[in-house]
Structures are given as C-alpha cells and as structure tokens.
C-alpha cells in the first residue's frame, strides 16, 4: 500500500505587498491576475484581472489643475467598499457611483486652502474607464463631486 502524501492546506489569508512594478515602454504598470478573495461564503473577487498604466492616470489627475489640489505622485489599489462614498444629488437623493466589490487606484490629499479650523481633503479614484475627484471633510463627511470624467 502506497503512503498518502500529506500536503499543507492553502493559506486562508495572505498579505501581498507591491514593492515595485514592472514597466512597459518606460511606464509603471499595475497588473493583477487571477485574484480571488472571499469572506466566509461571500465572494468579493473571483478570478479578477486588472492592468493599468499607473503613470498615465497620475498625469490625468494632475492635468485637471483643480484649485487647492496638490499634485500627486502615487496611486494605491483599494477595494471599492472603502472609497464608495454616498453623494447628495441635486434632486436631494443620495447616490453611490462605484462598485463595492471592484478594485480602484486611489489617493487622498489634503486641500491646500484649509484654514486650520476645518480640514478638507480631495479623494481621487480611478477605474479602467473613469476618473473621479471628490472633496470632503473629516472622516469623509459631506462629500461633493468635483469631477467625474470618462476615460
């Protein structure tokens, strides 16, 4: 009788850190392939692929020249659940624009026009087909859309 092989079970959670990224034609890229994540029975990502030229997105945000928004030099991959704010529309209803289960490239920068009493921040979010800049107070209070642009 042959001995059974004993193998280690796959890790339930793993931390992935991107220290550097490859370049394509001299441009930094972010590539994610076959990413899956679940919390118990709830699947958040299932065999997800994502490729984007990160520097191109940074240039797009900086070219907007939004008053009070400093230039950015980095974007971070984040799950939509953390950046999907609820915006009040002109008709008085609240609307979320993003998908909680998607991954976006994001940054948050403090507004240069803060007077010291109230801190305002800009939230920058990019998907494959759009960029979004919003402005909000502490703890993402009172968010307002500054620009939503299709790419």
Q: Could you explain the architecture of this structure?
A:
The protein is mainly beta and 151 residues long. The protein is built from two helices and ten strands, in the order βββαβαββββββ. It has a five-stranded antiparallel beta sheet with strand order 4-7-8-9-10. A hairpin with a 7-residue loop joins β9 and β10. It is globular, with a radius of gyration of 19 Å. 11% of the residues are buried.
Order of helices and strands: EEEHEHEEEEEE
Structural class: mainly beta
Radius of gyration: 19 Å
Distance between the ends = 62 Å
Measured as a percent range, the helix fraction is: under 10%
- Count, helices: 2
The total of beta strands comes to 10
What is the mean pLDDT?
81
Strand order, largest beta sheet: 4-7-8-9-10
Q: Which spans have pLDDT < 50 for at least 5 consecutive residues?
A: 1-7
Largest sheet: 5 strands, antiparallel
Query: What characteristic shape results from the CA principal axes?
Result: globular
Kindly estimate the percentage of residues that lie in beta strands according to DSSP.
35-45%
């Amino acid at each position: 009788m042959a001995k059974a092989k004993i193998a280690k079970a796959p890790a339930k959670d793993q931390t992935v850190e991107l220290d550097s990224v490859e370049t394509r034609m001299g441009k930094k890229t972010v590539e994610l392939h076959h990413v899956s994540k679940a919390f118990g029975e709830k699947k958040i990502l299932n065999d997800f692929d994502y490729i984007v030229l990160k520097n191109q997105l940074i240039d797009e945000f900086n070219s907007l020249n939004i008053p009070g928004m400093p230039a950015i030099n980095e974007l971070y991959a984040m799950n939509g659940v953390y950046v999907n704010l609820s915006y009040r529309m002109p008709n008085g209803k609240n609307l979320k624009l993003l998908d909680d289960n998607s991954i976006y490239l994001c940054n948050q920068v403090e507004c240069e026009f803060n007077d010291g009493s109230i801190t305002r921040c800009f939230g920058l979010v990019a998907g494959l087909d759009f960029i979004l800049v919003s402005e909000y107070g502490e703890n993402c209070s009172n968010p307002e859309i500054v620009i939503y642009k299709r790419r």
